[in-house]
Amino acid sequence: MHPILASRVRTLLYVASWIPIGVVLTQLLAHDKTLSYGEAAVIVVPMCLVYAFLCQASWYLCRAVPLQDTAIVRLCVTHATAAAVSAGVWIGIGFVWVWLIETSAYLGPIIDRYVGQLPILLFSGVVLFLLAVALNYLLITFEVSQRAEKKALQLDVLAREAELKALRAQVDPHFLFNSLNSINALIMIDPAAARRMCVLLADFLRGSLKLGSELRIPLADELRLTENYLDIERVRLGSRLRVEKDIDRDCELCMVPPLILQPLVENAITHGVAPMLEGGVVRMQVQRNGAGVRIAIENAFEPEAAAKTGAGVGLQNVRMRLKNLYNGDARINVDENGARFRVELQLPCDHS
Question: Is residue 4 a contact partner of residue 11, using CB atoms and an 8 Å limit?
Fold first, then answer.
């Protein structure tokens, strides 16, 4: 269907745009006094309403003869011919209308006076049809542009979703492999701890699978997942792992990506606390920061030990996920100061 006729509002606006055209044509037909203004208006107004919709046939002609793919000569000949034919049909409809008026004796004999205005009507009909052609080419170009923009947006969304799935798939086995290695190490030296770690790992995976399919989850749920992970690490490290928390409860309803904190806490333990003989403290701080929420994770580390274990995939993974999810509205800052390593997330605090 024609885009103008597809909407009632557009149709009304389009019909209204023909009012000034009717006024101009009335002036043209009455300029030589052959027809009075009243007679010219009675003839022109119905003819304009008919021609307004007759000109919309040019939409289908424009679709059949694309502007970019058609030679200029063919374009000119096709639309000039169509304009002449349409103007002729319009004039013929005008003849019928004038005959009906004359038959009703409403205005008296005016067919001869109508015939005298045929050059003006023919020229006006051709011009109006060509203007409709130009309008329809603009509409088609706009439609193609919108379709291309929508397709590009869909492709961008699909690409982002694919990348996010790949990043999530990277985190899950990375954490799972580390946990299984820990369980394997505990089996010989502390079977009870290994069994407890298996139970905690099952609970954590169950929770992550439940919430991981969501694009956003409340920060409170993310903190619970992180606490489940810490329970697993406490079995492995015992008293060597100490955790300090400063959580602003007003932030718990903020929506965040699932499993955005676990890689950072894992990074703090794997590359910070675990390599140190005496262990260390992981500090987690959650505070409001204007319209956003600031989450900081800080841990002690030994630079030489950290260099041997490597940086892992956690930080890079989180960085890429934030880039894809927030389009620059979220950021991650890493600060290494002496024997302290601090990662700070700044996220918008959305509630939906």
Answer: yes
Domain ranges of the chain: 8-151, 190-348
**Calpha distance 306→315 (Å, rounded):** 14
3-class DSSP assignment, residue 216: coil
List, for residues 63-86, the tens digit of each pLDDT value: 888 888 888 899 899 999 999 999
CB atoms within 10 A of CB 295: 26
What sign does the CA torsion over 4, 5, 9, 15 have? positive
Find, among 261, 352, 351, the residue nearest to 314 by Cα: 261
Q: How confident is the model over 235-266, as pLDDT tens digits? A: 878 889 999 999 998 899 999 888 888 888 88
pLDDT at 87: 93
Under DSSP, the state recorded for 293 is E
Q: What is the CATH number of domain 190-348?
A: 3.30.565.10
Q: Which residues pair with 262 in a beta bridge?
A: none
State the sign of the Cα–Cα–Cα–Cα dihedral 6, 7, 10, 14: positive
**CA proximity to 343, closest of 288, 282, 289, 302:** 282
The span from the CA of 270 to the CA of 293, in Å, is: 26
Rounded to whole angstroms, the Cα distance separating 350 from 73 reads 58
pTM score, two decimals?
A: 0.52
Distance CA 132, CA 134 (A): 5
Residue labelled with tokens 């302290």: 340
Task: Using alpha carbons, select from 242, 336, 250, 256 the residue that is nearest to residue 284.
Answer: 242
Q: Quote the pLDDT of residue 284.
A: 94
Cα–Cα distance for residue pair 350/40, rounded to 1 Å: 63
Instruction: Give SS3 for 302.
Output: coil
